[in-house]
Amino acid sequence: MNPEDDVCLCFHVSQQKLTNFIKREQPKVASKISECLGAGTGCHWCVPYLELMWEQWKKGETPQ
After folding, report:
1. How many CB atoms lie within 10 A of CB 34?
2. Helix or strand run (H / E) with residue 8
3. Number of other CB atoms surrounding residue 52 within 10 Å
4. Which long-range contacts (CB under 8 A, 24 or more apart) does 22-25 make?
5. CA-CA distance, 44 to 34, in Å (whole number)?
6. What confidence score (pLDDT) does residue 64 get?
7. What is the spatial distance between Cα 4 and Cα 11, in angstroms, rounded to a whole number?
8. Nearest 10 degrees: CA dihedral of 41, 44, 46, 52?
9. pLDDT averaged over consecutive 10-residue blocks of the chain (64 residues)?
10. Alpha helices in 1-64 (DSSP H)
11. CA distance linking residue 34 with residue 47, whole number of Å
12. Phi and psi for 37 in degrees, rounded to 5?
């Protein structure tokens, strides 16, 4: 996936924006990622991907 590709299709939130948000804000729970431009609050299609990105970050990996 290209970093500029949208993960959240409803609000056009890219992988890069989400990765930067996670690194900067260090959310304690995956649901806090919704504070990044509303990601995951529309149709909820991207929620599993947002949770996966958060889990990767918690393991010390770069979210992808």
Report:
1. 17
2. strand 6-8
3. 14
4. 22/53, 22/54, 22/57, 22/63, 23/57
5. 10
6. 83
7. 14
8. 90
9. 92 96 95 94 96 95 88
10. 15-25, 47-58
11. 9
12. 60, 25
Amino acid occupying residue 53: M
Task: Give dist(CA 3, CA 10) in Å, integer.
Answer: 17
Q: What pLDDT does residue 38 have?
A: 96
The continuous run of DSSP H or E covering 14 comes out as strand 13-14
Tokens at residue 57, please?
A: 């970050």
Q: Which tokens belong to 11? A: 């609000």
Task: Identify which of 13, 15, 1, 12 has the alpha carbon closest to the alpha carbon of residue 54.
Answer: 15
Q: Distance (Å, rounded) from C-alpha 22 to C-alpha 32? A: 9
Give, as one character, the DSSP assignment of residue 21. H
